[in-house]
Amino acid sequence: MCGIVGAVAQRDVADILVEGLKRLEYRGYDSAGVAVINNNNELLTTKRLGKVQELAQALEQQPVTGGTGIAHTRWATHGVPSEVNAHPHVSNNTIAVVHNGIIENHQTLRSQLQGLGYEFLSQTDTEVITHLVHHELKTSDTLLSAVQKTVKQLEGAYGTVVMDSRDQDNIIVARSGSPLVIGYGLGENFIASDIMALLPVTRKFSYLEEGDVAQISRFKVSIFDTNGEPVEREAKDANVSHDSGDKGEYRHYMLKETYEQPTAIRNSLEGRLVNGMLDINTFGEGADEIFKNVEHVQIIACGTSYHSGMVARYWLEELAGVSCNIEIASEFRYRKSFVPKNSLLVTISQSGETADTLAALRLAKEIGYQSSLVICNVPGSSLVRESDLAFMTKAGAEIGVASTKAFTTQLVGLLMMTVAIGQHHGMSDEKQTEITQSLMSLPAKLDEVLALASSIEDLAEDFADKHHALFLGRGDQYPIAMEGALKLKEISYIHAEAYAAGELKHGPLALIDAEMPVIVVAPKNDLIEKLKSNVEEVRARGGLMYVFADSDANFASDDTMKVINVPVCDDIIAPIVYTLPLQLLSYYVAIIKGTDVDQPRNLAKSVTVE
Ligand code: F6R
């Protein structure tokens, strides 16, 4: 979603800001803008609808100079994507504001400010912050105190950065519900919504906590908590490669990240299996004690992360013998739910900032969950900081909006969690060893799957003129079918649905004809004969099938069915193995359709609003 970058420096910052925005492009946006204060204390603002590149070109034609500036990529919530609605928003040629999140009481504030004579130019909720700061400044000694008074009147979520053209030395930032990270340089300091934006200029960061307001100047950062008390927020060196933002030899980040999965999984496993046995400390301090007492697991997540949670439910109940429910975060947070005794809340999130998942975690603490664990890819993110335990997936930065390596490493984490909980619920040493050995075999197995890319690319041709597709799976492959369908619709814009194959005859069979390709995920397992009956039901209705199966499953290509041979693997890791061919299929279909693979329309990488 929206991205923020800000800087207070001696050098000109426009290029740093634009580079920062480029590095946040993966989050999804529809317009971009920058404002800097020049040496004459004038505010120079440039905004463009569309890509950051358009903004960069505009700045090339008409450069802006100045050492203090803010920049933003906007993902429209209130008001259409347009130059007028793009940030920064400005009040009286002096106050400039960028904002992530949603101000829920913006209508009330807008009316009040209009009553005070403020004229609104945009349809955004953000513009109320701009005028409110301007108004509060009339009765405040400093910009800091005007912003402190302003944020007290805001309801909703914000990560916001404010500057005043009359003060080149400071920018003021505030966080509630939308992450902000301070980057420390030498004689210059920065702010951003994501450390990715600032990696070219610093590696030292501290995250603001909820309710914090901070004043950032070249040599000093002062942070204040909700009560206005000065606080320290620990600064840490980021352990992230600068180059994680580069596509390298790949045409798209999504393809690069799909190919990175064997390495990502190796990184995810590294140091966590000691002599083939799981090191429980990998989940954090006190993990053993918490897992010992767990009698029930509630998983909460959204989108792709929800699908990994669905797989985990099969594992937890079958392998660890612990009851498990899974629910979409936006549903869970708005209903009254029953909390079984000794329940562990597990959230799953690539970004660690998904608004609904975070709200669900906070709710869970209020309604009696004994403890919480997050499976996450972003160290220092809100979910990591607010959970009792954390499993860091270590997939490396994922830039493509469509999640690939974050998903498969989540599955690795969830399988390790299954072992960790299973240890306390009678899982035998043999079973634990079997699972950990299967995990260790994964990277090599995934290399074999990636070698199927060219045959999957050929297959993609068949989908280019299709408008719908149906994905079928059974057991722990049903969530993989769901993930396959989500990937296809996200990046190729083909409508796709997934069904547990046993549900076919309860409705979706009516859809089957030659225009509805049916993708079947079919490893040889205990359910294969049942699945084969479902395949026959489709064949009998003239359906065309694409079956991903291992040789043991005994499918053969014919007029109505194309079989893609996936390497034989252990049942336990099959959900991970079968994910990759489906990722590749969506990717190649999207390439044929010519869509924006890394930044599909209307989508954002990190969904920080509900
Ligand atoms: C799809 C995708 C999304 C995310 C969802 C939750 O490819 O990436 O469905 O999974 O928005 O995001 P996180 O995992 O960051 O909580």
Main beta sheet: 8 strands, antiparallel
Mean of the pLDDT scores? Answer: 95
Q: Helical residue percent? A: 25-40%
CATH superfamily of the largest domain: Glucose-6-phosphate isomerase like protein, domain 1
The total strand number stands at: 27
Low-confidence stretches: none
Radius of gyration: 25 Å
Number of helices: 18
What is the CATH fold-level name of the largest domain?
A: Rossmann fold
Distance between the amino and carboxyl termini: 11 Å
Q: Given this structure, which CATH class of the largest domain is correct? A: Alpha Beta
Strand order of the biggest β-sheet:
3-2-4-1-10-9-11-15
Domain count: the total is 2
**What characteristic shape results from the CA principal axes?**
globular
Would you identify the CATH architecture of the largest domain?
3-Layer(aba) Sandwich
DSSP strand content: 15-25%
- Helices and strands: which structural class? alpha/beta
List of distinct ligands in this structure? fructose -6-phosphate
Subcellular location: Cytoplasm
Protein name: Glutamine--fructose-6-phosphate aminotransferase [isomerizing]
Catalytic activity: D-fructose 6-phosphate + L-glutamine = D-glucosamine 6-phosphate + L-glutamate
GO molecular function, one term: carbohydrate derivative binding
How do the helices and strands line up, and which of them pair or pack?
Layout: E1 3-8, H1 14-23, E2 31-37, E3 43-49, H2 52-61, E4 68-74, E5 89-91, E6 95-100, H3 106-115, H4 127-137, H5 143-151, E7 158-164, E8 171-176, E9 181-184, E10 189-192, E11 204-207, E12 213-216, E13 221-224, E14 230-231, E15 236-237, H6 253-259, H7 261-269, E16 273-274, E17 277-278, H8 287-293, E18 296-301, H9 303-320, E19 323-328, H10 329-332, E20 343-349, H11 355-366, E21 371-376, H12 382-386, E22 389-392, H13 405-422, H14 429-450, H15 453-460, E23 468-473, H16 478-492, E24 495-500, E25 518-522, H17 528-540, E26 545-549, E27 561-565, H18 574-593
Parallel strand pairs: 18-19, 18-20, 20-21, 21-22, 23-24, 23-25, 25-26, 26-27
Antiparallel strand pairs: 1-4, 1-10, 2-3, 2-4, 5-6, 6-7, 7-8, 8-12, 9-10, 9-11, 11-15, 12-13, 13-14, 16-17
Helix pairs in contact: 1-2, 3-4, 4-5, 7-13, 7-14, 9-13, 9-16, 13-14, 14-18, 15-18, 16-18
Bound molecules: fructose -6-phosphate.
